[in-house]
Give the backbone structure.
Amino acid sequence: MPSDNHGNQYSFKGSGTNSQGNHYCARDFGPGASNSNSYHYSNQDGSYYYSNPDGSTYYNNGQGKAWYNPLSKK
């Protein structure tokens, strides 16, 4: 089973491109994670968004600004 860069094991759920042309990837970190169904988007405008297994979120607008929210909930 693969692991992320923090050593958390996950199973790959899927990836693809949505109707807006943005790439996504989804991973399942299991029932022990605050957010077991994590995903990220890489958008055509250069921005990207992560919904992390610990419940946090991260957004980068692709233009030098980023936002991290450690308090996001499932």
